[in-house]
Amino acid sequence: MLIGSYKHQIDAKNRIRIPIAFKQQMQGPLVMSCSVNGCIGVYTRQQFEEIFSKYATSNQFKAEEQKNFTKFFANLYEVEEDNQGRILVDGDLLKYAGIKKDVVTVGKFNHLEIWAPDRLYGDDEGFEKVFDYLGKVCGE
After folding, report:
1. What is the pLDDT of residues 40-60, one digit of tens each?
2. Residue 19 scores a pLDDT above 70
3. Which of 63, 82, 119, 135 has the highest Cβ tally under 10 A?
4. Other C-beta atoms lying within 10 Å of the C-beta of residue 129
5. What percent of the chain has pLDDT over 70?
6. Contacts made by residues 97-104, CB under 8 angstroms, sequence distance 24+
7. HSE (CB half, 13 Å, CA atoms) of 79?
8. What is the Cα–Cα distance from 22 to 26, expressed in whole angstroms?
9. Pairing outcome for strands 15-17 and 40-44
């Protein structure tokens, strides 16, 4: 299970390292995508096969459904580590996520999210809303 967060930076050539705590579970080619709430999602190729299988069973004649799949697939990037353990993050993904230099990589159960710190920590309302929401979802 991937949990926790790590603050680090993207280099001048738009490369980052997967934090060591996550490396064992994030092996092989990785797939990066735009994700919800303005972050970058990072998945192993195997994890992403599940999403691909949902597309294979989608209705090819539903225009709105296909429009969303097309936009999503157009913004997927398969990446692999270089010899020094860095992965290149596409400039469009960085722009989408509002990342300039500082990043926070978050373990989210079975995948990673890469955030601009101000988007992840921006509301600074503490955990009251978080715990209220989790209480409702997980049953009080």
Report:
1. 999 998 888 887 787 788 888
2. yes
3. 119
4. 10
5. 96
6. 97/34, 97/38, 97/39, 97/40, 98/38, 99/10, 99/40, 101/9, 101/10, 102/7, 102/8, 102/9, 102/10, 103/7, 103/8, 103/9, 103/10, 103/16, 104/5, 104/6, 104/7
7. 25
8. 6
9. unpaired
| pTM across the whole model | 0.87
In the prediction, which pLDDT does 140 show? Answer: 59
Which pLDDT value is given to residue 18? 94
Q: What is the chain's length?
A: 140
Residue 26 reports pLDDT greater than 70: yes
Q: Which residues of 87-119 are buried (b: 16+ CB within 10 A; e: fewer)?
A: bbbbeebbebbebeeebbbbbbeebbbbbbbee
Tokens of 108: 């989210």
DSSP sequence for 46-115: HHHHHHHHHHHTS-TT-HHHHHHHHHHHHTEEEE---TTSEEEPPHHHHHHHT-SSEEEEEEEBTEEEEE
